Amino acid sequence: MSKSIQHLIPGFVYVCHSEESGSGWTDWDRGKVSEPCKIGIIQAYTISSSTGFFNSFTNQAAVLFKVQKRINVLQIGNSNYLQIRLVSGMSNNVYVVENNIQKKYKKYHIRGEWYNLSSRQVQNISKLMEVLTKKQNHYNVAK
Asked: Helix, strand, or coil here: 35?
């Protein structure tokens, strides 16, 4: 996808956590172990198959529903329990926000959109998402 098209796609960045067997939630929650986490995006609209029109969704319940649907699809091929850990605010430039987060955590990259992260790193991603989302939204409005 070209960069000019990427600037036109609003959405949300999410992080889900995959509990590996035997490590336990408490160790991960305390930041003692790192486990696979997926950094992904959900676009803020879908195209209706019946009408061909865009259906946008920006309220929190609709966004969480879309993220959970995505996690459910990922869960089918994953023996570990997946759980949503955080979802960003609405970004006018979701690909740039996701790309910046992925670059920052490049050394923890496993494969695809999966990273070996601790809960503390996920908390830091939450702060980074907020800053990047505000920056991209301001940039797109000012432009």
From this structure: strand
Q: Which two tokens stand for residue 18?
A: 């995959």
Q: Which helix (H) or strand (E) is 46 found in, with range?
A: strand 45-47
Report the DSSP beta bridge partners of residue 16.
38, 84
Q: Give the torsion sign (CA, 72, 58, 96, 33).
A: negative
- Per run of 10 residues, the mean pLDDT along the chain (length 143 residues) is 48 84 60 83 69 59 83 88 84 85 95 91 88 72 50
What is the model's pTM? 0.75
Q: What CA–CA distance (Å, rounded) separates 46 from 120? A: 33
d(CA 135, CA 115): 24
Domain spans in the chain, listed from the N-terminal domain onward: 3-142
According to the model, what pLDDT value does residue 129 have?
86
Task: Give the Cα separation of 128 and 67 in Å (integer).
Answer: 19
